[in-house]
Amino acid sequence: MVIKVYIASSTGSVAVKKHQQAVVGFLEANRISFQEIDITMLEEQRLWMYRNIPRDKKPEKGNPLPPQIFNEDRYCGDYEDFFESKENNTVFAFLGLTSQPSVKDSES
């Protein structure tokens, strides 16, 4: 299973940049393998992302904003969903992962 994070490398929105950094930073810090997909560079991927976000998660106007998170082809959620799962300590379930990766503490 591959976690896919759809991002926009060239966005004028500070909020979008911070949200993307928060998701990517969490995944990196927790050694969760993921793939970043830049929707500003790959039109086909951007369209795929838009098509695969559930109707109830799409805004009334405009397009859904990055970051959008998928586990392979299964939609996990957007930044708000991620943040809520992080606050509830349910990120691994949110991502559709069975368990937290084993991480050894390098500090002695």
Automatic annotation (TrEMBL):
GO molecular function annotations of the record: SH3 domain binding
Keywords associated with the record: Nucleus, SH3-binding
GO cellular-component term (any): nucleus
InterPro entries xrefs: Glut_rich_SH3-bd (IPR006993), SH3BGR (IPR051033), Thioredoxin-like_sf (IPR036249)
UniProt-listed CDD domains: GRX_SH3BGR
Keyword Nucleus: yes
Xref: SUPFAM superfamilies: Thioredoxin-like
A Pfam family reported for this protein in Swiss-Prot or TrEMBL: SH3BGR
Subcellular location(s) of the protein: Nucleus
Family statement drawn from the similarity comment of this UniProt entry: Belongs to the SH3BGR family.
Protein name: SH3 domain-binding glutamic acid-rich-like protein
Organism: Seriola lalandi dorsalis
UniProt lineage: Eukaryota, Metazoa, Chordata, Craniata, Vertebrata
